[in-house]
Structure formats: structure tokens, C-alpha cells
Amino acid sequence: MTNLSKLIRPGSTIGIIGGGQLGRMMAFSAKERGYRIAVLDPTPDCPTAQVADLHIEAAYDDLDALKELARSSDVLTYEFENVDAETIEHVLEAVEIAVPQGTELLLNTQNRLTEKDFLENSGIPIAAYAKIETEENLKEAVETLGYPCVLKTVQGGYDGKGQVVLESDAEFEEASALIKKGTCVLEEWVSFEKELSIMVARNASGDVVTLPVSENIHENNILLKSIVPARVSDEVMDEARQIAETIAEKMTLSGVLGVELFLTSEGKLYANELAPRPHNSGHYSIEACSDSQFDLHIRAICGYPLAEVDLLKPAVMVNILGEHFEQALELNSSQPAWHVHDYGKKEVKTVRKMGHVTILTADTEKTLKDIEETKIWD
């Protein structure tokens, strides 16, 4: 369900469910446009709270706290997908508030099986898959899909968590342990040449725009670098845009959606996953584009028209994890042209996303070498 019948004008309050770095960057964009920010997050002094006007310190599924957020806001949005859709429905019944993204988007993307059914029914190419509830299901599906294949929990996994790659029968014990936690999906292995993503924005009036296609490099299942524009053919870029626009229209999207894709050596694209909000691989857009993914999201959920996005300059974005943090901050002194973002997280942990660096460049290959030469990401 979505509900937005009027413009949410500057001076109004945008309520954000979730106080991480995505909410923080949404808030920066909203503040630039004259909005106030309220945030719901259980963590004291979380990244978004540091730049918000109101912080409601409570769990994401706390109905009373969500009602308080709704009453304090003119429009609600969320910065991550693990928000309980049923709880939001209860809020909508109790408080008259605009939630442009609605709950259908959450329901379609929170569950991998539901998401795959949606993509398949929308004519979007995806890898073959099977629903897995028992070890017997798994054995039968492996016989059909073959090795290698990937077993994933239907809900909750991110950055490689909640999944097992099966190369042979040797991984069955680990896979069985995952099945015991709940329903899973087994996916055919896609032998990809590149991982790509594209951000698409749509408002309630039906304006649809996309950001440039990003080429993504992962390490240990966590995004390390994004290269924009992706080093692919114009035909692949056009197909990625068509896929993203189709998904946005079929979902009647309001806001920003991230579409992750696999590109095979034969030039075939497969949709991998959807993110119903701004995405890590779109952070480059803050410096590199005429409108960032956060600008588009704020405009879309507030009901304003969306303009076509121009890439102002090619860029490379690199994630700063906990193990990179101290050295990466030194780049402020040694690389004054590099844009170093610190998310304001108080506790530095290994593999935790602490910030990112965006480098605008006229020579992508040289920039990639410059990044290597810092030795920070070795």
C-alpha cells in the first residue's frame, strides 16, 4: 500500500526508520532542501541521529515508538529493508501519515522467494532456483540445478551472511544447518564476468530516472569498489536501464531502488537482488552526478518531479571498513582531491562499514592503481 496525495514541502519533517549511514546521507540531502528530520533507531547517537532534529531511541518494530515517529513527521521512509511491514500497516491504521514507499515493496524484497517470483513474473531474467525446506528438497534440487549452486535463507541475509556455496556433497552438513534455521532458496550458480548495479528512482506521478550503471568488485561478499561508468558495452548499459525501469514500473515504485545484476561472458544479464532503498554502490553519485541517489529519493518521496541525471565525471568509490578506518582518514591530508566520508559510527569493528571514499577521475585505470598504491585495502 502507498499513500501520497500532496507535495511534502520544505519545512516539513521527514521521518526515517533506521539510523545508519543511509539515513544519515538521506538527512544531508533533505536538510539541503529545507526539511527537518526525525529518526527511529535503538542506538544512542547513531549516524542519522547526529544530524537529525529528533531521535526516538527504540526498536524498529516498537509500535508505540513508530506511532510517535509518525505523529512527529509529515512523511515516513525507511533506510533498510528489514522493517516489519505488518507493523507499518498498524501505524497507517492509527496515524494519518504518508508512506510513499508503501509496504508492498517491503513484502516483495524482504523474502527472496517472493522477490524471485516477482522478477520472474515481470519477465526479468534470473537464475533458476528452488524452494528448500528439508534436506530431501535440497538433494532433489541439487540434482536438477547441479554444482556449484548457492543456498540462501529467504530472509535477513546480507554481505554474504545466511548463505552457503555448495561445490560438492562436502557442503551438505553446513547447508543442512542453514535449512534448520528456516526456509531457504537454492540458486543455480551464474558464472558471471562482472557484477553490476543500477539505481532507479520513481515518484508517484510516474517519473522514472536511473543513475549510471556501476561495476562492483566484492571481497569476502562485501562491496569493496564501485567503478562508474561500468566498463561494459552501451548495449549492456541500455539493457540494465530497461530492467531497472521495468521493475520500477511493475512495483509502482516511490523512492529509490537498487538493482543488482550479474553479467556473463556471453553478455547476458541476470537480476540478482533488489534493495528497496538507496544502495552502497550508489554512493559515488553524491559527488559524481547532477543529483545523488539520496536527492532522488527525497524528491520522489516528497512528490516532486525528477530530472534526468547527468554523470558529471567518472568515479571510483571504495568502502572504508573497520580495518581500513584509521589509515583511510589520513587520506584527508595525503589526497585532498579524494572525498572521504566518515559515517560517525562510534565503535570501529572489522568488516563494519565505517565510511567510503569517492574519487572523481579522468583516468579510471590510473585511479585504481593509485588506490592499490595506498596499501590501505591490501
TrEMBL record:
Q: Which UniProt keywords apply?
A: ATP-binding, Ligase, Manganese, Nucleotide-binding, Purine biosynthesis
Pathway the protein acts in: Purine metabolism; IMP biosynthesis via de novo pathway; 5-amino-1-(5-phospho-D-ribosyl)imidazole-4-carboxylate from 5-amino-1-(5-phospho-D-ribosyl)imidazole (N5-CAIR route): step 1/2
User: Matching SMART domains, A to Z?
Assistant: GARS_A (SM01209)
Q: Broadest EC class?
A: ligase
List, separated by semicolons, the cofactors it needs: Mn(2+); Mg(2+)
**Domain ATP-grasp intervals:** 116-302
NCBIfam families, sorted? PRK06019.1-1, PRK06019.1-2, PRK06019.1-5, purK
* Role played: Catalyzes the ATP-dependent conversion of 5-aminoimidazole ribonucleotide (AIR) and HCO(3)- to N5-carboxyaminoimidazole ribonucleotide (N5-CAIR).
* PANTHER family registered for this protein in UniProt: PHOSPHORIBOSYLAMINOIMIDAZOLE CARBOXYLASE, PURINE BIOSYNTHESIS PROTEIN 6/7, PUR6/7
- The molecule here is called N5-carboxyaminoimidazole ribonucleotide synthase
Name the encoding gene, please.
Answer: purK_1
